[in-house]
Amino acid sequence: MAILTEDECKAILKKALSYSKADECEISINGSDSANIRYARNSVSTSGSLSSSSMAISSAFGKKLGIVTLNEYTDEAIQSAVKRSEELAKLAPENPEYMPFLGPQNYAPPAKTFVPATAAITPAQRTTMVEQSLNVAKEGKLTAAGFLQNSSGFSAMMNSHGLFAYNTSTNVNFSVTLRTADSQGSGYSTKDYNNVSKLDTLAFTKIAAQKASGSANAKAIEPGKYTVILEPAAGIVLLEQLYGGLDARSADEGRSFLSKPGGKTKLGEKLVDERINIYSDPANPELPTSSWSGDGQPLTKMSWIEKGVVKNLNYSRFWAQKKGVKPIPYPNGIIMDGGTQTLEELIKGTEKGILVTRLWYIRPVDPQTLLYTGLTRDGTFYIENGQIKFPIKNFRFNESPVIMLNNLDALGKAERTVSGESGQSALIPPMRIKEFTFSSLSDAI
Amino acid sequence: MGTPVTPGTRMRDVDVALKKRMADVALNAARSKGATYTDARIGRYLNQFVVTRDKNIENIVDTESYGMGIRVIANGCWGFAATDKLDNDSIARAAETAVAIAKENARIQGEPVKLAPQKGYGDVTWKTPIEKNAFEVPMKDKTDLLLSVNDAGFKNGANYVQSVMFFVNEQKYFASTDGSYIDQDIHRIWPFFGVTKIDDKTGKFETRSSLSAPRGMGYEYLIPRESDKIKGLTTLYRDRYDMHEDAAAAALQAAQKLKAKSVEPGKYDLVLDPSHLWLTIHESVGHPSELDRVLGYEANFAGTSFLTLDKWESKKFKFGSDKVNIVADKLQPGSLGAVGYDDEGVGTKQWDIIKDGVLVNYQTIRDQAHILGLTESQGCCYAQSWQDVQFQRMPNISLQPGKTPLSVEQMIKGVEKGIYIIGDSSFSIDQQRYNFQFSGQLYYEIKNGKIVGMLNDVAYQANTQEFWNSCAAVCDKSDYRLGGSFFDGKGQPMQASAVSHGSSTALFKGVNVINTARKI
């Protein structure tokens, strides 16, 4: 559906709330338009477009909650949905962890999450962007497979205590894999932005092309512990396991890598190298995100790991109340401070090491140590005396991001990257890590 | 997964005649704009999640999603558009959008789409043969069962228990310009739990997840039946699951895991229970035999495959030992993959993938069948919802039981140094499906034909072809059970599909086992 303005959202939500007879009522509405092209074997494989929206009405009597959603917004439909949510709340079991809805909140002025040029992308524009990517493949006698998706959307919420929040956003997401004609080399590149003008599908495909040609005829070297340089697209998939796990409740309950014997946690303790600073900031111009969370809490700049010390953990409103602390909502975008060196400079400063473009199929092995396994993919290279010497065969790794960040050697300049596993974006620097554990070789290219 | 609704607010079933009229609007609109082929899928997808945490019902979510996806070929190129507004004008507009997208993309299309011929079936129907519709079971029965499951965990020493029931009902209507009007009603169920046991002194914790399988069944799966239980080190389940009993065992076993011996790394013979082996089959046989991966359609995300066409063409590529017979099917009753027709209107069937250890076939759909010289699709097309475009998804892929009588006890008796693994856990495999690593829920050490105790920190790593060639025996059909994945992910944007994998317990010789214990 079309993007509703703040005033349009206010009007429709106010009207919906006017029908409420519950102790509390909270109503949210969101909608989005998205379209994509998927290509493979140097040709379009699938493409499509989707437009959808929904309204969710939550009515509560005491600790009993009823939720109804709808995607038809006539007065009659909304009124009847409000009534149904109240009937359901009366029938629902009491939830001992229920938290009353919030009152009015102060949100920071919205960051530039919505870029009109991205919302206005046409099918022809999308096709042209993919065409540029395909041309790189064809000129290099390579085979391309890729994905380009753009979306725009709005979300708003209002409740009977006077809370109102509104946000719009756009996103364009691109990833491409190029393979040599004999399938002996493979290279990858991915980017996502709020602003389509930052996305150069030609330039990013050229990076993938370089890696594809450069990774052909890789040599096998023995698995073991190596110094590695993780490009941001490789590092993010391990780092997100760490910052995604900064949860107070599981730590307090004794079932997290942050737990300590006797019900204690590592909050306030040094967890990783003191050069590590991880925080969130909705107003960051490179990674603008909504200034409010899904339950209406303000999202502000928040430090999670400072100089290697666990500074804050995510506290749900229920858990915060139980523990007598302030709730801390989980953020939408994570930023890890970097240094000043470029990736090339990091390579130059490496005596012996391995450059990793991408890590893949990341799965937990041991939650106690945050041990994960996965593999390198689409461009893995051996570095000697500051230069890339030759491509190497892919490895399986077994490593914990906690151990990895304790073995930090150097940080490069942070850049926006998107996780190939979760689809979430973050600002992540390239990292040089000592003694990264590769446990076996893979024949995959 | 659709938008949340509550049980009382679901819409009523949609009349088939109305669906046919709506589908015809799409087919006619697309044709009038120049489409040479069109299919329309009208879907009503119901999901229910019942989630408990310890002594509380944490969440009850009912979602419903209703709309239409229209796929066309115009100027030799695919186009797709979806809408949740189902008046004639909105349907026609979506059909026009699909055609416009196809025409726009045709300018960067290589070869035109070539569809395997498919006869129209006319008006036909198919239903999952369920005994008890889970959506009609009172919510109190479900929450009472889950809370009693958690209680069984606590009574046996668990510190935390989380239990969940997922139910899916896909009401799918498919119509195409080939002349098919197919109405299907598909049901799936997945109950599971996880228990956690903490050692306060050391701060160590262990978990044990349920040994249930997601199934293409109704609520009857949750009604225990003694004849479906296999008693042993822990009770295992065939076509009925006793969630309460399994939770009690899990709590005790989580405590045992805390005290279990850390494995000595090295080569072991592995005896793999179907509750574990299904995932190894899924990752190392199911995915690499998907033809779209072989051809490079998934190169940017899920990856390609080591099972290249030349290996198939040679007719002698030794994928596994001669004990390895693997069948693809979309028919097996109670399985997640069983449907009457796939999402491009192809009737379903069964076929061999690996025959006596040799690669003999792949899994494919209409626009790729011609590459294998097939004159019809194998019926492997699926979309997770009306709003997603359909593409090749895995059918049930199952290891056939051994032909000679062999029990698990007899198998273990023949093992000198081995590990018996039950249940699935960590899994990871490379993008061409060579190198994998798997863990389980329970590990029992085998020495000289006997179980001598529990192990911990176990994971095995192998190369797919070497692993399947090390398959020395498969137990007979009396041990055959289904495992499966409720949320197998593939494609961009990623779509989930559900698929079952059957097997009997199997023996693999000399597999590399690593120790996963680390310190932070």
Written description of the protein model:
The complex is a heterodimer of chains A (445) and B (520). Chain A has ten helices and 21 strands. Chain A is of the alpha+beta class. In chain A, α4 runs parallel beside α5. Chain A starts with 5 loop residues before the first helix and ends with a strand. Chain B has three domains: 172 residues, PmbA/TldD fold (2-Layer Sandwich), CATH 3.30.2290; 66 residues, no CATH class; 250 residues, no CATH class. In chain B, 20% of the residues lie in helices and 37% in strands. In chain B, the strands form six sheets. In chain B, strands 11, 12, 19, 20, 21, 22, 23, 24, 25 and 28 form a ten-stranded mixed beta sheet that branches. Chain B starts with a strand and ends in a 5-residue tail after the last strand. Chains A and B meet through β1, β2, β3, α2 and α4 of A and β1, β3, β4, α2 and β8 of B.
